[in-house]
Write a structure and sequence with these properties.
The complex is a heterodimer. In chain A, 29% of the residues lie in helices and 30% in strands. Chain A has helices spanning 36-52, 67-75, 94-106, 128-135, 189-197, 216-219, 244-260; strands spanning 2-7, 9-11, 17-18, 25-26, 32-34, 55-61, 80-84, 113-117, 140-150, 153-159, 163-170, 173-177, 200-203, 223-228, 237-240. In chain A, the strands form 3 sheets. Chain A has a 9-stranded mixed sheet with strand order 11-10-9-12-8-1-6-7-13, sandwiched between helices. Chain A is built from 7 helices and 15 strands. Chain A is α/β, with parallel strands linked by helices. By secondary structure, chain B is α/β, with parallel strands linked by helices. Chain B is globular. In chain B, helix 5 links the parallel strand 14 and strand 15 (238-241). The chains are: A alpha/beta, B alpha/beta. At the A-B interface, helix 3, helix 4, strand 9, strand 10 and strand 11 of A face helix 3, helix 4, strand 7, strand 9 and strand 10 of B.
Chain lengths: 264, 333
């Protein structure tokens, strides 16, 4: 069984600091980590590999420093790693990212299961997984909360708005997983050692045979017009409801707000 | 000029409420650009009255692709049928809701068509100079807003955050053109099959809810959930949870709100016993009205709340439930 896990390097949300006066994110303070949901995707792959046999490749598009992210993935259980890195990839939107990843995947022996996190914590689009499946002409199962194997089928449990749906699909398949899909372990000593020694294959646009016009910003259908920092903080009304009087007053205000919002 | 399309998703033959929110968006864009609005639905033999509801709420036309394999959402047949329709009608704009369906279908179609797609938009407008669709969306947990456009590729595609606009008002009997189409079998193949569906039991899905009552560490023990459930029932609220409450096994992951859970945009978010870590705020700070209940006056959640109440979760929810019950009984008598 051949597994591929897509990983992305993102700013670490735990280390994100807010500017107290402007309410904006201090980007410089953020260190980079492997996208948290991708760790769950990787853990799913590890559990399936340990049960069904096979190997796990990891694929990442990012700056040269994203090699760290791939070593982290190896420490967590991946067998081999590929980094797509080229200044020409800069400015890729989700379509272009999916297209670049697809170009790399087509150069590798076929996979039985391609896994990714449901979204990255920075861009939060969740679009790259399904777009990649479309470009590779593969079925996709999004919002996966459990993956199992029965006979020739992958059995995927999906968390929808109003319940859980179960779908079945033979290989190959792209699955975008939620946190619920597997609980990651910590890197082992042996894993860390393998991560230090591993050769990370690095590919640029030329090694993917991607002409300049098909990479990065110029190949991206979308353009960012502007970025701004909203401030959701507000100086709201406060009520101390630790005593009975305050409690009654607080309940009055909540009922009034619910009426105002058209709920009651 | 080619029109504005909305993807009107359906479940069990019923057009989803979010489709009518999309019509509100489309009507505003149409007013600014003079475009025609078409609602596209995929399903199996939807009732004429369901399709007419889309016309009543502002669609100029409805295009219903109908076939048994389209009864439930399956990514590949849905994408193939939608792509076929887009390529034969060339709409300028396609909007879908940022639901599990929309967030699967649109990137798949955009991938196929090399179209520009913006996820989870909260604002849409037409650029008066270029006529392009300006799509504004939150990223990085709501800390950044980005406005995005697609200069060349068509259609300009966007998914729109549920509950970010009101449903379009209905004018029953409004005239419009309803067309049904049976797609060729070649478009309907799917290696992926739907086996079954288990709806959430008594609890409402947190993503769909107009009111969310979320609890965190302040709950202290799972026994106290009965009080939360009683309050949620009076509020018609879905129960949400902080990561802490899920990690302790008090509530299921499906209820988790925040960076590693769901992003919710209800009209009212009542956070009880939740301090408001940045990861939690990322999943709820764009709610219309945030009410926070916490014993710690320094809890960050208070900085985001329209109403901040310093109280223990249990006495507060008990008092609120009692008041809502009394109010309901008075109304009934």
């Amino acid at each position: 069984m051949r597994f591929l896990v897509l990983v992305k390097q993102v700013p670490e949300s735990q280390s994100v600091q807010m500017d107290k006066t402007t309410g904006t994110l201090i980007r410089e303070a953020a260190t980079s980590v492997i996208n948290p949901l991708d760790v769950h995707a990787l853990e799913c792959a590890c559990q399936l590999r340990d049960r069904l046999g096979g190997s796990i490749d990891c694929l990442c598009m990012g700056p040269p420093a994203a090699e760290h992210t791939l070593r982290e993935a190896i420490a967590l259980g991946a067998d081999a790693a590929f980094l797509l890195s080229d200044r020409r990839f800069a400015g890729s939107d989700t379509w272009c990212t999916a297209n670049t990843l697809a170009a790399a995947i087509r150069r590798l022996p076929a996979y039985d299961l391609i896994l990714c996190g449901e979204r990255a914590t920075d861009g939060e689009t969740g679009q790259t997984g399904p777009a990649l499946a479309a470009l590779l002409d593969l079925p996709v199962a999004t919002f996966a909360s459990h993956i199992d194997r029965q006979g020739d089928d992958w059995i995927i449990r999906r968390l929808l708005e109003n319940g859980y749906e179960t779908v079945a699909c033979p290989d190959p398949l792209v699955v975008c997983v939620l946190k619920e899909a597997a609980i990651p372990g910590l890197p082992t000593l042996q894993g860390k050692k393998r991560a230090r020694q591993a050769d990370i294959t690095r590919w640029d646009a030329a090694s993917l045979d991607l002409p300049g016009a098909d990479t990065g910003l110029q190949a991206s259908p979308t353009r960012v017009v502007k970025i701004f920092h909203p401030d959701h903080r507000q100086q709201g009304e406060r009520i101390d409801a630790r005593e009975t009087d305050g409690l009654a007053q607080a309940v009055d205000r909540v009922v009034a707000l619910l009426e105002q919002e058209g709920i009651l | 000029m080619n029109g504005i399309w909305i993807f009107a998703e359906q479940n069990n033959g019923q057009i989803a409420a979010v489709a009518f929110e999309l019509l509100t968006r489309a009507l505003r864009l149409a007013a600014d650009s003079g475009r025609r609005i078409t609602a596209v639905t995929l399903g199996h033999n939807l009732a004429e009255s369901e399709l007419q509801r889309l016309i009543d709420c502002g669609a100029d036309g409805v295009l219903h692709a109908s076939a048994p394999p389209l009864a439930d959402f399956l990514p590949q047949p849905y994408a193939a049928v939608l792509q076929n329709l887009l390529e034969s009608h060339h709409p300028d704009i396609l909007l879908a809701a940022a639901t599990t369906q929309g967030r699967t279908l649109l990137p798949y179609v955009a991938g196929r068509m090399r179209a520009g797609l913006t996820a989870d938009c909260t604002e849409l407008a037409i650029d008066p100079d270029t006529g392009l669709l300006l799509q504004t969306r939150p990223a990085a947990g709501g800390n950044i807003m980005a406005t995005i456009k697609t200069p060349l590729q068509r259609p300009q595609m966007a998914t729109v955050r549920p509950h970010s606009s009101r449903p379009a008002p209905s004018l029953p009997g409004r005239r419009g053109d309803i067309r049904r189409w049976t797609p060729p079998a070649a478009l309907l193949a799917s290696p992926l099959r739907r086996l079954h569906f288990e709806p959430f039991s008594e609890e409402r899905g947190v993503q769909d809810a107009e009111v969310v009552l979320a609890v965190g560490r302040g709950l202290r023990k799972p026994d106290h959930l009965a009080v939360v459930r009683a309050a949620a029932s009076e509020l018609h609220a879905a129960i949400g949870a902080s990561r802490e409450a899920v990690d302790r096994g008090w509530l299921p992951y499906a209820a988790q709100v925040g960076l590693s859970g769901k992003t919710v945009t209800p009209k009212v978010y009542l956070a009880a016993g939740i301090s408001g870590a940045i990861q939690h705020l990322a999943g709820m700070q764009t709610a219309d009205c945030i009410i926070a209940v916490n014993t710690d006056p320094e809890a960050p959640i208070f900085n985001y709340a329209r109403l901040g109440i310093r109280a223990e979760l249990l006495p507060f929810l008990t008092a609120l439930t009692a008041r809502l019950r009394a109010r309901r009984n008075t109304a009934a008598s």
